[in-house]
Amino acid sequence: SIAHEVRNPLGSIRGTAEILKDNFRPGDRNHEFFEILIKETARLNRVVEDFLRLAKPKPAIISDCDILKELENVITLVSAEARHRKVHLEIKPASLPIILGDREKLRQAFLNLILNGLQATPPGGRIMISVSSADKDADGAEMVLIEFADTGMGIPVGEIDKIFEPFFTTKEEGTGLGLATTKKIVEKHGGRIEVESESGHGAVFRIFLPVYV
Questions:
Q1: According to the model, what pLDDT value does residue 173 have?
Q2: How far apart are CA 49 and CA 12, in angstroms?
Q3: Checking DSSP bridges between strand 192-197 and strand 143-150, what pairing results, if any?
């Protein structure tokens, strides 16, 4: 309820700022101030949206899901950002069974991990995404593994246990909700997420998902 109460006046603030900005020409300091106001209200709105997705996610829409196809869709979506950051994105395809899952939510989970890797990887680095069949879980369910490996700065030992906690972030403009949301999505699908990293030597995120949930 609080998140909704914050979001509604944010829309009014942004709309008013956009109208007032038109009274000044580009280059005018007031024009610049209104642009900052619009940018910051948009950032705050993203925080609210992230919180709403975490606190009250939409009902899952379960259907047949081609993991490789969904990954390729996400890579297409972030390809421009990767080129801008001069980070090479590569996917190793493999033959996988069709799983049951919510395509939109899984795309969100994959997108969060890839964006996280892009932000952590310096120019000239790379993110490798691979998919494969994994060992069955404790209940005997067939599993698939999606691995995201980057050549970024890695995660300090003292932070690995905290990265999936809501609101924990080391980024200046981060909300600390991306990885928490990803973990929640994966667990709602009956899967699990693991991370392996060494400071200065990149990170590897592994998502294990059951073929049927």
A1: 57
A2: 16
A3: unpaired
Closest CA to 132 of 121, 118, 119, 146: 146
Say if residue 130's pLDDT is above 60.
yes
Query: What tokens appear for 121 in the block?
Result: 């990887």
Identity at 165, one-letter amino acid code: E
Six-digit token string for 35: 């642009």
- Mean pLDDT score of the chain, rounded to an integer? 86
- Considering only CA atoms, which of 130, 119, 81, 111 is closest in space to residue 181? 111
Q: Give the model's pLDDT for residue 121.
A: 93
Question: How far apart, in whole angstroms, are the C-alpha atoms of residue 114 and residue 159?
Answer: 19
Task: Say whether pTM exceeds 0.85.
Answer: no
